Amino acid sequence: MNVRKPVPFKPAALIFAGVVCGAMFSELLRPGLALAQPGKDLPPDKVLNAADRQQQMAASLSQINDRLGRIESLLTTGDKVKVTEMPATKDK
Prior knowledge:
This protein has 92 residues and is mostly helical. The protein has helices spanning 10-29, 50-77. The longest helix has 28 residues, at 50-77.
């Protein structure tokens, strides 16, 4: 009769391998650094603090508001177009 000898460390080795593989895949799935944080490739003079960013955003918003106001005024008053010359039409 041929009886197999039980291997005592096989279940523990399989569990250990599963934990190691799980840890490796969890590192791959972890999100990277936030894009809002300055990287090492950004020169030091370009790094802005929160107050500077807020001032720039406020300036940009005021520019956008001015442009939008001009567009709205054009749309409400209308733009008059006078046709002085018509191209020749092609008759079939």
